[in-house]
Design a protein that fits this description.
alpha/beta, Metallo-beta-lactamase, Chain A, six-stranded mixed sheet, 26% strand, Glyoxylase, beta-lactamase superfamily II, zinc, RibonucZ/Hydroxyglut_hydro, hydrolase activity, Metallo-B-lactamas
């Protein structure tokens, strides 16, 4: 498995990641607006986009979905509680941030819950439902990597004051993350890469909601 962190995109400097299998097929974790750049990165890394896994439905994570599906025919995965944001282009939040260029996506999607395992070639992605930032926020875990979207950042967490946010749900989600076994490399939706052990030690929000006495 290769993980390629793409440059931050959109007005919110949103992270996205290519997860590439041994067969050079790729999953894109989140799709911020700039499909031409993402397509160039796929070409540069000699891989074929097969799937887009969305951590949640905010505009800065979905803006390139429609164009990428048109260009590649890839499948799109999102939690059912956030599907409506994908369908509307998350217009409210895009307007709030005065963002241009996002698109809604009205094509086929594949819905899931955390009881499912998503697969591409030899790669298996476990799903952890982590509501709080949005109702349908999820984290994807593949091997020793976790793609945490806007739930967990380096030393911080995602906002809960936007529509659909819920701080009490976020606290429960953070508790679940803190209590995961072992260490993981955390690839967040914003800011830099970190590790779960580091966040257990230094992230005040994760420490406060840990059940294991970290």
């Amino acid at each position: 498995m290769r993980v390629i962190k793409l440059k931050p995109l959109s007005i919110c400097e949103t992270n996205s990641y290519l997860v590439i299998s041994q067969q050079n097929n790729a999953v894109l974790i989140d799709a911020p607006y700039d499909a031409p750049y993402i397509l160039e990165e796929l070409k540069a890394n000699n891989c074929t986009l097969k799937q887009i896994f969305l951590t949640h439905g905010h505009f800065d994570h979905i803006g390139a979905v429609a164009d990428l599906v048109e260009a590649t025919g890839c499948d799109v995965y999102i939690h059912p509680l956030d599907e409506k944001m994908l369908r509307t282009g998350d217009e409210m939040l895009a307007t709030l941030f005065r963002s241009k260029g996002y698109k809604c996506y009205n094509g086929d999607v594949k819905l899931f819950t955390e009881n499912d395992i998503l697969r591409l070639d030899e790669l298996e992605f476990d799903i952890l439902e982590t509501p709080g930032h949005t109702p349908g926020s999820v984290c994807y875990i593949c091997g020793d990597a976790m793609f945490s979207g806007d739930t967990l950042f380096s030393r911080s967490i995602g906002r809960t004051d936007l529509e659909g946010g819920n701080f009490q749900q976020m606290k429960k989600s953070l508790s679940r993350i803190a209590d995961l076994g072992g260490d993981l490399t955390i690839y967040p939706g914003h800011m830099g890469t970190t590790t779960l052990d580091t966040e257990r030690k230094y992230n005040p929000y994760l420490r406060e909601n840990a059940g294991g006495g970290y």
